[in-house]
Design brief:
The complex is a heterodimer of chains A (about 475) and B (about 240). Chain A contains twelve helices and 13 strands. Chain A is of the alpha+beta class and about 475 residues long. Chain A starts with a helix and ends with a strand. In chain B, helix 5 packs across helix 6 (about 140-155). Mean pLDDT of chain B is about 80; it is low at about 30. The chains are: A alpha+beta (about 475), B mainly alpha (about 240).
């Protein structure tokens, strides 16, 4: 009897185990297939991006070759436009290919530069002006590099299909990490080495570019370092506007930490804070940088050169909204005046519920200097100025000799016939190519739309058009 | 007797049918036909109007959890937060004023002639999600700073040229790779995103940031550092 029940139990146990095994095996196979399917889908997307990238760069290179020799402006503009189009597409494709490190790439930069340059040249050639010798030289320099990029990319592409390269270098496996087995050092893996070669060691770059890459990304990096052997392109243009290397507007002299605290206290006192004890909690290393200070919810940055407050933000909780936007803007402007800012005009407001963001620009003899702007954040509970950002002002403000060569009437005659002018004035704006333009600004309507149109006050060309759209939170200038 | 019974049954049937149609009619007018704004909604309300209210709250940046058409705790809380920041009485009841304000803010942009031209803020949601996923628990300006880094990449020549391309660039953001980007952002992240998009930059031109306590990546440590905000070091 006992033996019998033992056998019974064992039989049932083995059946259960067998079933469990069968089910988990089935589940495993199912999951495996699912994963394979998804991996293939992803892989196909990457492949598509790489194929497109190679095609875009090739198209860009061809268009560049043609644009160089085109002599009729209409054809030159066409080829320049094609360069612009394919370079933009290439940048986008490039970002769809997996990287093992984020951003910063020479190829990206070169392609972006070319896009930018061809854009400004399109405008120039279209207005029936020729590219000057320097620009022709820059264009040729760019083309030489693109030939190189194009060739290497196509090599990599062939390699990818011939050898089934991985997208990124696999991290070292367990055995390799334990020091067993050979660890192949690629450029992509050697973060430091790569960083060194970026500093411009031509020999290292040369070596790096001669190794056979073990992944697509590794290959792109080698391409990057092989481009280091070229001297830098002299074109600066519109690039890297996010960082100002040489601020123009900081006052002379340098300050120390104690002085920074004084400046912060003084600044806060003008805004109505009493007996503040701001403390230096960090330094910021940039041309406009200096000391970072905090006091309760307040954060301030004060420049080392010139000792001015470039950034202030009070992060306090904001109570129930009690003001409307115009009243808040009024209060914010009054605070700005208390801080010693005269001759500023409010040019835009954005209602963000508990606070409003305001931009104010310098006005000099009726000329609006849009580049010299400050941003204000005003709390909607009591109208207190809770944010102030003068980075743009100190970066771009300088003495300008502004003399218009054409008259307002002459400028007005250059506008579209349907354009009804509402407001007109002189203004300084930033335009394509990181330069400033001294312009007549016309605000008006045409075709049921509101626009801002800028006519160069010296050369008379139409340089910029902005469309004005009414959003629920304020006017948006597109 | 038999006839009587039949008659009574018929009468019963008619009464039942009538009451069903009446009930259906009523139900349809309150749920199907009613649009947001016809009546005030309060905790406990249910139906399509509540769903619409919830969608609009999310659109302006106030999370309500699941859009389920039930005016529950989280919807009440979201309404209260919205009311507070719009200067309305923060009672958690979506009355006439609250709904009108919500409708205004979620409306489309228009040209000067009044033609509708879309919402013009499509990137805010994505940026807010990225900020929320990457910078939860950071101080407010730390969150604006993360948004500013992305906006700076847009202006830099070494990065792609659209917000989506920057955020979804493979391996660019850990929160994108592990799926945290799909979490709904909170009010703060949405505000920070709007502020960064309109040009605020507390970092002074940073492109990267990292948490020094969690990162050993040599590349990121080698970037020229600008400053530290909260737990992040911001670099060029």
């Amino acid at each position: 009897m006992k033996e019998h029940s033992k056998i019974k139990i064992l039989t049932w146990l083995s059946i259960t185990l067998f079933l469990a095994f069968g089910i988990s095996l089935g589940w495993g196979i199912y999951e495996y297939n699912l994963l394979k399917e998804q991996k293939t889908a992803l892989d196909n997307q990457y492949k598509r991006a790489l194929n497109d990238l190679v095609a875009d760069i090739n198209e860009m290179e061809t268009s560049m070759a043609k644009a160089k020799v085109a002599n009729d402006p209409s054809l030159k503009v066409l080829y320049l436009g094609e360069i612009w189009k394919s370079s933009d597409a290439a940048v986008n494709r490039f970002s769809q290919i997996p990287a093992d490190e984020m951003g910063i790439s020479y190829v990206d930069k070169l392609v972006n530069q070319i896009a930018e340059f061809s854009k400004s040249m399109t405008q120039k050639v279209a207005s029936a002006r020729n590219m000057n010798d320097n620009e022709v030289q820059i264009f040729d320099d760019m083309h030489q590099r693109v030939i190189e990029v194009n060739r290497s990319l196509q090599n990599l592409f062939n390699l990818y299909y011939a050898e089934n390269l991985e997208w990124v270098d696999a991290p070292p496996n367990l055995l390799q990490r334990l020091g067993i087995g050979k660890l192949i050092q690629t450029v992509a893996q050697g973060g430091e080495k790569d960083g060194d070669s970026k500093q411009g060691d031509p020999q290292a770059a040369q070596q790096a570019s001669e190794q056979t890459p073990s992944s697509v990304r590794g290959g792109l990096k080698q391409l990057d370092s092989s481009l280091q052997k070229f001297p830098p392109i002299s074109y600066k243009g519109d690039l890297d506007k996010h960082f100002v290397e040489k601020p123009l507007g900081l006052p002379e002299g340098e300050i120390d930490e104690n002085k920074a605290i004084d400046i912060a206290r003084n600044f806060l006192a003008k805004l109505g804070y009493k007996d503040t004890q701001p403390q230096v909690t960090g330094l910021s290393d940039r041309p406009l940088g200096g000391f970072n200070l905090t006091y309760q919810d307040v954060y301030l940055e004060i420049s080392k050169k010139g000792g001015v407050v470039t950034y202030y933000r009070n992060q306090r909780d904001i109570d129930e909204r009690r003001l409307d936007v115009p009243r808040a803007v009024e209060k914010g402007y009054a605070a700005l005046e208390k801080l010693g800012w005269k001759n500023m005009v409010v040019t835009s407001t954005e209602d963000l519920d508990s606070y409003v963001l305001v931009e104010a620009v310098a006005q000099d003899n009726g000329i609006r200097i849009y580049t010299d702007k400050v941003r204000l954040t005003i709390a909607m509970d009591n109208g207190e100025l809770i944010g102030f950002d003068a980075n743009a002002y100190y970066a771009f403000h300088h003495d300008r000799r502004l003399n218009s060569k054409i008259t307002m009437t002459e400028a007005r005659n250059k506008l579209d016939k349907n354009f009804q002018v509402i407001e007109e004035r002189l203004a300084v704006i930033s335009k394509i190519g990181n330069e400033e333009a001294f312009c007549y600004e016309f605000r008006g309507t045409a075709y049921g739309e509101e626009y801002l149109i800028y006519i160069d006050a010296i050369e008379g060309a139409e340089v910029k058009i902005s469309r004005v759209v009414n959003t629920p939170r304020g006017k948006l200038i597109q | 007797m038999k006839f009587d019974l039949k008659d009574r049954n018929r009468n019963k049937l008619i009464v039942i049918l009538l009451s069903i149609s009446l009930f259906l009619g009523l139900a349809l007018t309150t749920t199907g036909q009613a649009a947001l704004g016809d009546r005030s909604l309060s905790p406990g309300s249910k139906g399509a109007e509540v769903k619409e209210l919830q969608k609009k709250l999310i659109q302006v940046g106030y999370q309500v959890g699941k859009v389920d058409g039930v005016y529950g705790k989280s919807t009440t809380a979201a309404v209260k937060r919205f009311q507070k920041s719009r200067g309305l009485k923060a009672d958690g009841i979506a009355g006439e004023k609250t709904i009108a304000e919500l409708k205004k803010l979620t409306g489309e942009s228009t040209t000067s002639a009044g033609t509708k031209v879309g919402f013009k803020n499509t990137d805010v949601q994505l940026l807010a999600r990225c900020i929320h996923a990457e910078g939860r628990g950071e101080p407010y300006i730390g969150q604006v700073a993360i948004g500013a880094c992305i906006m700076n990449r847009l202006k830099s020549s070494e990065f792609p040229n659209s917000i989506a391309a920057i955020i979804y660039q493979p391996k660019a953001f850990s929160a994108v790779d592990d799926g945290q980007i799909n979490m709904p952002p909170d009010d703060t992240a949405v505000k920070a995103a709007k502020e960064a998009m309109s040009g605020s930059d507390p970092t002074g031109g940073a492109l990267f940031y990292f948490n020094p306590a969690k990162t050993k990546n040599k590349f990121i440590w080698s970037r020229p550092q600008i400053k530290k905000i909260g737990n992040h070091i911001f670099t060029r």
